[in-house]
Amino acid sequence: VFALTAHADSSDGKRAAYVVDTTLSPHARLHPVPISAVTMGEGFWKPRLEANRTKAIPRLLELLEEHGVVDNFRRLSGRKQCKRRGPLFTDSDLYKWMEAAAWTLAASDDAAVRASLDRIIDEVLAAQCDDGYLNTYFVDERADKRWSDLGRAHELYCAGHLFQAAVAHYRATGSDVLLDGAKRYADYIASEFGPGRRQGAPGHPEIEMALVELYRTTGETRYLELCRFFQDQMKWTELRSLRGHAVRALYACAGGADYLMETGDAAYRTALDAIWTDLTTRKMYITGGAGARHHGEAFGDPFELPNDTAYAETCASIANAMWNWRMLLATGEARYADVMERVLYNGFLSGVSLAGTEYFYVNPLQSDGGHQRQPWYGCTCCPPNVQRTFACLPGYLYSTSPEGLWIHLYDDNVLDWRLEDGTQVRVSIETDYPWGGRVHLAVSPEKTAEFTLFLRIPAWCGEATVRVGGAETTCKAGAYHAIRRAWKAGDDVGLTLAVAAAPVVCDPRVTANRGRVAIARGPLVYCLESVGNEGVNIMTAGLPVGASIESMYQPDLLGGVVELTFDGRWLAYDSQEALYRRVGQTDEPASQQGRIRAVPYYAWANRGDSKMIVWIPLLP
Amino acid sequence: VFALTAHADSSDGKRAAYVVDTTLSPHARLHPVPISAVTMGEGFWKPRLEANRTKAIPRLLELLEEHGVVDNFRRLSGRKQCKRRGPLFTDSDLYKWMEAAAWTLAASDDAAVRASLDRIIDEVLAAQCDDGYLNTYFVDERADKRWSDLGRAHELYCAGHLFQAAVAHYRATGSDVLLDGAKRYADYIASEFGPGRRQGAPGHPEIEMALVELYRTTGETRYLELCRFFQDQMKWTELRSLRGHAVRALYACAGGADYLMETGDAAYRTALDAIWTDLTTRKMYITGGAGARHHGEAFGDPFELPNDTAYAETCASIANAMWNWRMLLATGEARYADVMERVLYNGFLSGVSLAGTEYFYVNPLQSDGGHQRQPWYGCTCCPPNVQRTFACLPGYLYSTSPEGLWIHLYDDNVLDWRLEDGTQVRVSIETDYPWGGRVHLAVSPEKTAEFTLFLRIPAWCGEATVRVGGAETTCKAGAYHAIRRAWKAGDDVGLTLAVAAAPVVCDPRVTANRGRVAIARGPLVYCLESVGNEGVNIMTAGLPVGASIESMYQPDLLGGVVELTFDGRWLAYDSQEALYRRVGQTDEPASQQGRIRAVPYYAWANRGDSKMIVWIPLLP
Q1: Does the complex come out with an ipTM higher than 0.90?
Q2: pTM (whole model) above 0.90
Q3: Is A381 a catalytic residue?
Q4: Distance (Å) from the C-alpha of residue A202 to the closest C-alpha of chain B?
Q5: In the prediction, which pLDDT does A56 show?
Q6: pLDDT tens string B54-76
């Protein structure tokens, strides 16, 4: 039984730029806060979001133009005579850029972004067929090939990204220009596919979550039904583990979670739980990265998590965050926020340069050098995916539930929003997170109101305390700490999370990490990089058992990071002519020792070519 | 221009049970010594060869009977009504068993083996078609499928193994019963394939070396031409590196080396040199094993040599030894004998249990347990391949050239043979090799004769001296030490090879071995095994830089081995619930230390289920 209440824009006078709109989803525990309700302060994320808006989004549009991606649409509308260029799925790259631009407008009325987006929307819609179909590849001389190769052709995938861009544009700006085009296309697809009509499932899932969001935005149940149809076609609820292409599998999970929140279908819950356990206990890198294998961009076997040949596509990290955001909304369970945070600060953020305009497609956890971020890829899915994730980010910080307000991620910001009973509330957060663990919150409801403030205590946090109204309480890690009281304007909350650097050991079934540790501090995974460790053979450097690790904030290093140092030891050897060389005690690799520096994993490869390693030997 | 001189049996009154007969090959530097000329003494190999002859060969024939492999032939001859059983290539398993039995008869007139072999030859030949074709799969109801799927059907592969069995039988016993059948089949294949006739190459090479040996045995140049035809069809001489299925690739190399020795074709030499360099500097395990990947039983990329997921099929080790034996015969270069020895004592010998009747198909260099040898496999290629290798082994110890006598492998034995000028010579060798490096040789020509004695000094040997006629000389490792003098009956030679245990470092491009060492002693690679190391977490145990390694012969351990021990350290941790666990100094994996034991790699998994590791951390 579907929830038949039409979703649609909220009626509270604010633009409801929700990143996944569960406001009316009957099986969602949490409800999001719109991007526009959050004003980012001078914390960790703001410079990155600013670079995304002012540099990366404009630059990527230039590159999309240079590579003919927009011309592909102009060619169809007759505005330009040219050949189609790019991979068959490249429409989706433009759609993801449009989604990024749209979410950006929810946070900032950037005239340049708005103008660019309006122009691109016009170019895209001008290419739409009369029947609603919109794809630059399967038209014209290939028009008779529509839907002929669902497994590989990415038509439904591209459509999904168009729908997501349209939903974002509508939620961020109130304009239904693009949304109308999306609905026409979705209606056409719904008329083609379904019981008694065309059968088949998208080879690259994505459209499922887009259809649910379209349903939430329009109230049209046929979109939810079409989502279910595609999921049934791929027998998705029978899955219990992750195999094959990582991005596809994780997008399918996100779509499953979306469907679950609308229907409460137990088969979806069972599949999602099993797959999530498979991911987080057997197939996820410490960075939140997913997809062990280059071949097929695929998940490996359980515990197959090589570091140097890790694929860990940036898009897979993003898909992982998107899925966990949905699981968090569905359940309010902190474990999903833990995965989101792990991804955002590590496997996602490594995907983009400090400058904000170069991207990794592949995110290894160990490199002998030669791995550098690029502004563009032949398959350029990751850059616009990074951009839409940055643009969404303010929308991930908070949620509401009937009990009160939830805080998932800590950063300097001000929230202006309302409780679910309509009480306006302002929350100001000041923090040095993630470099430090002190979080100061000023909670100001418009009038004194009893509600619960749910503070997320990260699972990595060994010691957390909260001080409110003069009383200090110890908090449980890996959970939301609930503070229920009558809040009044100006109430202060002090949260202290211990962010001490510590080694992390891996399940010994992961061969690559056996006898090794990673070093983490707060939400950040660290790495050794050859740059900054001159004279150290970082590829053999180890951390002695019990060694103390010092933390020091370095404002001029890599945009400002806490650098870690420790007294370590390494073997001095680099290359040899023979594959195997028998050595005596006199020509054994020499043991050397000295101070070793570690920097956040996300920041590596920003100082020219370098070697890098995350998992280093723990020296007994 | 082919060498048109008919080869054939040698005319010196001895049976010429040559393992690869290069006696008349114009481009072979060395010429083999027949198996029958070597009497093995009470050394390392004899008990293994005895177990092979008295236990393994009879037992495998029982299993071949139980699994219907012989019945497949009886079915065709009408001697039994039954269904065909086993994989389509299983004829080759019986042929390899026949080859093993035949070579065994060259060393020992074992009445039971002879009777079994004669019986099986009769069963096989009774199934041969009138046109010479002989294959139990593509006959009868599948007769019209002959040669229809050369890539996968293994027809030519099976034929090759039949030819090799026939050649061995003829050389070992003088009987041409099986050889006549092989010639009829080869003539039929030659009438079917060739320029202007059927095209195509065997999907699984093997027949190439068999055809050259058939040419050497019969003098019929059409067999050599057919070998060349198949090699041309696969454009073999264009290859410069190893890819794909390891056994196939290495058999093709062996066939290429055979063809080179007959023709001197420079294109073959170029290809063989390049491929050999690719193998030995980029794709070979320290055990001599080959084939990094389970998927496709294939070679990996350069330096892709994982230990736990190593495939290193026993057959690939054998193929590697077969190829290097041919390269050694072609050139007289010690580097090929080094690889042969590496394979024989490690990656080959690990393929069989100490009892001699159980086999590994896959030979990993690291195991968490559960890897046990089996008497039989559904694809049972390895067991009979091990058997024919043991049966050949005495034929690998020596060669001759016009300059004199070459000694490749050291073990207790007596050689009764002749120099190439016809002078009879006896060489008696007493040695504790491979446990010790003292080799005593008594050289007795029938009359005083000037010739060179070429003593192989292994590349692993840091220090080698030879004492002859009261003078001691230092020898260069990785070369043949040539002693030219007028030898007279009773001349003594004392060779001392330093076999001290030492760590081996790997090219750092092999990620799995970076910061790790293997321990080797003499020709043997060692491993840590959980059995015998109770209380030690061997999977994290490391060797401190500069640690001294003690050697002690243990007569009751694993059939008698030198055990190595050293003071090492390890981390005490085994399992954990979460994939990643952040630890503090109090719950870090504890550093422990104690005496650690290492045993020869070949001997692992002979004491029940165990964990095993070859490459252990070198602790700086």
Answers
A1: yes
A2: yes
A3: yes
A4: 28
A5: 98
A6: 999 999 999 999 999 999 999 99
